DNA sequence: TCCGTTTGGATAATCGTTAACCCTACCAAA
DNA sequence: TTTGGTAGGGTTAACGATTATCCAAACGGA
């Protein structure tokens, strides 16, 4: 059985409370007994029971991080950034991945609440207008911050990249590189993909270029999706000469399709991804992409959350949109 | 204040214990009161306080996962596999990443113990012969399983890939492809790198080839390290015609050096990595690599741990070495 | 010498649940 | 009528800490 404060107290002949005070450096304790207690604690290799402490202090120093999927490097980076930001404050991370299943997500959030996390950071996949999960969090008054994927209709903190700006940035870059027929391999039916699409459209309009519905291909987030989408585009009468892709995996899939078709990048088709996935600069043709500042997202979300946890009363919800950054590589670079 | 069992008990006019029994489906309760309790619980949106429960049951249903770094896709996959394996059993994951710093690792492990995790899965970076951290875990009798990196001198469960087999597999493959001067870009000074080196040497000896100390270049785990190492090799009188790399990032760095030098893969230099990193089949030259069965590691480690958590008495430590699998791609493929 | 103030610590109550017993009907068999 | 079993619940005491309150001894000044 693990050592408890009672064990120390008995050995040193003081009360448990005295031990507790020594260990927390609180209250008035004589130097003599302090030393005795500390020595005995070290001898016995005492470790606080945080569960017991949490029960009475109502603080677990634990933050729940709810992610769509671990494996994705984007969320891996988020987790790292969050972990590094909160650790100095004594917090730990209870992470759960719901594999893009909204029901699993809700049950995981409930579970984390039951575990009395002090706060939550969520990259949610709840369907539109389904706010029950969030209502439950709010009822508990547990502070939470949404990341990456905004949830419309919810008044909550949000930290994410400016997706419309990503769409504009990517498309404008293709325009600047001289592309005339610019297509978009769009992502799944979620807000984030729509915003990137809007950015794409806005950039075209701004440049007085026509919107061609055939140039917007629906899809998913994976490289197979990009592969299929690109093959579809290449079969059309007027294949595009520039493609802005929902994300890097999609772009990588598209790249495979382009190369397989015997075309060259960027002369025949220029390609822009988004996300700046690891190794996207080591592909057969290094991919121009848009960095979404993953670390900043995790960092700022953590800080926002820590503020709210520390605050006496609930603060106003705050939204932070991080401006993306374009990284030009060979997939769009002009030949010299 | 969150709803407690006491709230329900008062409303339904029974004792707290009765509520507890209903909620756990234990003890003898009449159908009538059961329904009353359940209804009221639902109405109030009651959520168990797991902290309180854990205090008395001495079970947190939480597993500590201690990893060198989140960002690395390998550990991301591990985390995913572990999470998926333990979730059905009601366990959650308290993950901490120690950024390859042994001291942070030790303090994180202590912290997880203090949080009363039911078990630990650790990919350790403790220096050789430094077993104090593990002793503390053992003293607490908290079951734990080591993964990926074995710790010599410690009698504990271990699950990992067979690194010597990786070394042999990769090297033998190069030999079979006709390479005569096979170098090795070895990793950092840890057991896992040494085992791969041993496998490399063993394969050469088995094929009656001479060991050339100049062909073994020390390094790290990153692509810069591979880049530098490969440049070093290329500067020698007799550059190698085949290189077995510690891992994929190193191989990717090496590939950059080779291409920059104007050489071609695999004709001039054949390259084998290890780890089967995502997208390593989408590089400028798709990389032959050795898959280390990441999912299996996470899955088997979790199962081993769950067994030990469930067992009444401590079971014998068990070691599981997973046989690796070679994936041939263009970086070693013979031209057709 | 007496009273007030520190000093250093003890006691009691609490956090929300569960474990281990105990109790009281009620019913059936002896 | 007595015995005894069972159904359905209540009581009490943990679990390992913290918070709030209280108390004795020592000390200091008039």
Summarize the structure in short.
Chain A is built from 12 helices and 12 strands. The first copy, chain A, has helices at 5-12, 16-24, 31-44, 50-57, 73-86, 102-114, 132-140, 163-176, 191-206, 223-235, 248-260, 294-310; strands spanning 62-67, 92-97, 119-122, 144-147, 157-161, 182-185, 216-217, 242-245, 270-272, 289-291, 319-322, 325-327. Strand 2 (92-97) of chain A pairs antiparallel with strand 2 of chain B.
Break the fold down into its secondary structure elements and pairings.
The structure is a homodimer of 336-residue chains.
Chain A lengths: L4 H8 L3 H9 L6 H14 L5 H8 L4 E6 L5 H14 L5 E6 L4 H13 L4 E4 L9 H9 L3 E4 L9 E5 L1 H14 L5 E4 L5 H16 L9 E2 L5 H13 L6 E4 L2 H13 L9 E3 L16 E3 L2 H17 L8 E4 L2 E3 L9
Helix pairs in contact in A: 1-2, 1-3, 5-12, 6-7, 8-9, 10-11
The first copy, chain A, binds a DNA duplex (30 and 30 nucleotides) through helix 2 and helix 4.
Give a verbal description of the structure.
The structure is a homodimer of 336-residue chains. Chain A is an alpha/beta fold and 336 residues long. Helix content of chain A is 44%, strand content 14%. Chain A has twelve helices and twelve strands. In chain A, the strands form three sheets. Chain A has a six-stranded parallel sheet with strand order 2-1-3-4-5-11, with helices on both faces. Chain A has a four-stranded parallel sheet with strand order 7-6-8-9, sandwiched between helices. In chain A, strands 10-12 form a two-stranded antiparallel ribbon. In chain A, helix 6 (102-114) packs parallel to helix 7 (132-140), helix 8 (163-176) packs parallel to helix 9 (191-206) and helix 10 (223-235) packs across helix 11. Chain A is elongated. At the A-B interface, helix 4, helix 5, strand 2, helix 6 and helix 7 of A face helix 4, helix 5, strand 2, helix 6 and helix 11 of B. Strand 2 (92-97) of chain A pairs antiparallel with strand 2 (92-97) of chain B, so a sheet runs across the interface. The structure holds a DNA duplex (30 and 30 nucleotides).
